[in-house]
Every structure is written in structure tokens, then in C-alpha cells.
Amino acid sequence: MARKSLIARDEKRRRLYEKFKKLREELKEKGEYELLQKLPKNSSPVRLKNRCMFTGRSRSYYRKFGVSRLVLREMALKGELPGVKKASW
């Protein structure tokens, strides 16, 4: 349940970011920093966190694949990632 609430919170932040993205850019161009401060904190791009699309894990995230190292390893073993194979010797 804790993991699901983290994922839901992150999704809420992403929606807020997308909602205020254009307004944030306009305010930055005009230099109206007082109004920029009044926007919701969670609409800031700094607050976004990359998460694995399967497990929701935030640590050891591979941007190229959009998954964590654990899922990456399993997918490589199954051959689900083209051009990637697990090294063995």
C-alpha cells in the first residue's frame, strides 16, 4: 500500500506539472517571480522523480529503458529487450 501511495503522489505531481507548465514558462519570460512563487509547489519540475513503470521503484532507474535495475535484469534474461543480454562467463 505504501508503494501505491508513492506512485499516486508522483502521478499527481506529474499532472500538476503538465497543467502549469505553459504558465510557468510565460511567467519566467516576463520576469514575474512573485506570481511564480504563488504557483503550487508540486507543479515545479524539480519535484518530479523518475520511477520504474512496472514496480514504482525510484532508485537505480535506467532512463533508456524506463525501468529499475531489477526489472531490467529480468527483462534481459527473458530476451524482452532488443540488443541486451545478460553477461555470463
Quick gist of this model?
The protein has three helices and two strands, in the order H-H-E-E-H. It has helices at 2-30, 33-37, 69-78; strands spanning 61-62, 67-68.
SSE layout:
Layout: H1 2-30, H2 33-37, E1 61-62, E2 67-68, H3 69-78
Antiparallel strand pairs: 1-2
| Residue-averaged pLDDT | 89
Distance between the termini: 40 Å
Radius of gyration: 18 Å
Number of strands: 2
Structural commentary:
- With 89 residues, this protein is mainly alpha-helical.
- The chain contains 3 helices and 2 strands, in the order H-H-E-E-H.
- It has a two-stranded antiparallel sheet with strand order 1-2.
- It has helices at residues 2-30, 33-37, 69-78, and strands at residues 61-62, 67-68.
Keywords:
single chain; 89 residues; mainly alpha; 2 strands
